[in-house]
Amino acid sequence: MKSTLCRLVLCAAAVILPGSALAADALVSDLEQRLARGGVESVNEVLSEPTAGAAMMSRLNRQASACELQAVSLTVRLARGGPSRAVQAHEDSLRAATGRCARFVLALVSSAEVPRVCASQAAWGAAQTARELRRRIAAIDADPLLRGTAQGQACRAAYLFELKNTRVTLRVASTSPAARER
């Protein structure tokens, strides 16, 4: 299991690194230092401040959504904080990242966290959610590494559950003449 996870991270890094910023970002470095000094809750508190914190939060979440590896890694750790708006924002950016770099995100999260990151984003409408969930399920099915891991299967199951049991469930209208007259 450990070697599969290591292989998953290495493959994800090999695919993602050429397109992502390799140099350490000043914001991410600063937040990582704050995390080391004060813990998750103190960093999330700073990011929840209305002015400067909001700008930092927005930038961090854009970087994580764009699959910048250090930002994704930091966001995973910050999403483990207590319930707050900051944690919700981190989870939403991880959901976006999971659509672009699922291997890397799934390698960083625990099994218990998979359903939280393998879900739709709050801003999506019903039709967009249905399309995106189907696209992500197909991407997992097409990726032998994701398809063959417990994390990949758990993510697929979470997407499928949401597709069948939430607001995106669409009913097919009956085409019988009696049904049309109602």
* Main sheet properties: none
User: Taking Cα atoms only, what radius of gyration do you get, to the nearest Å?
Assistant: 19 Å
Strand content: under 5%
- Which stretches are low in confidence, meaning pLDDT under 50 for 5 or more residues running? 8-24
Mean pLDDT: 84
Order of helices and strands: HHHHHHHHHHHH
Instruction: Give the % helix.
Output: over 70%
Count of individual beta strands: 0
Global shape: globular
By DSSP (H or I, 4+ residues per run), the number of helices equals 12
Span between termini? 57 Å
- The domain tally reads 1
Class per helix and strand makeup: mainly alpha
Search tags:
182 residues; 71% helix; globular; 0% strand; mainly alpha
Give structural notes:
With 182 residues, the chain is an all-alpha fold. The protein has one domain (7-165). It contains twelve helices and no strands. α2 (26-38) crosses α3 and α9 (126-142) runs antiparallel to α11.
Briefly, what is this?
The chain is an all-alpha fold and 182 residues long.
Q: How would the blueprint of this fold be written?
A:
Layout (H helix, E strand, L loop, with lengths): L1 H15 L9 H13 L1 H8 L4 H14 L3 H10 L6 H16 L1 H7 L5 H4 L8 H17 L1 H4 L2 H16 L11 H5 L1
